[in-house]
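Table S2 (text version). Query chain:
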Amino acid sequence: MRNVLFAIVLFAASCACAANPVVQSASAAEAAGSRVDPEGTFTLPGSKGRLSALLKLPDDMRPGDRCPIAVLCHGFGADKCAQGGMFCDFAVALARVGVASVRFDFNGHGESEGALRDMTVLNEIEDAKRVVEWAASRPWCNGKVSLLGHSQGGVVAAMAAGELGAEKIARVVLLA
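Corresponding structure-token output:
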């Protein structure tokens, strides 16, 4: 686990953060089709209903700052807070080095809508692309959006990155 966290910190440091962000107000988020609460949890439209997500901003964030963001994709049967706490550790490590992160539950997982029996890799790719679109549209995002995926989330991250291309995805990290 220590080596994985070291790799994530190296990944984050390579993002070359321009500074840090401002949290979007709940009313602005709802106008954009997302709902955000003060704790950083929010929902956004997914392929099979609303997706539940958690936003972690850099620790030294100030109004007007901009930074990169990593979208974290969990594995099959897991959720945004599972993976043995690994994604929570990643979010904290990324925030320390100036990178925002968003963890979300794929459809049919965790707190997201949809039924697990209706989940397919194709609709998980669509979910990941919608989260990337949300992340890239934040006024505090410096335009560098990365994907990090574990297990089946790695398959989804790789395929979503391939569909979106280098113009929209700065880097991809895949974990077995």
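Notes on Table S2: Residues 121-136 form the longest helix (16 residues). Residues 2-175 form a domain with the Rossmann fold fold (CATH 3.40.50.1820).
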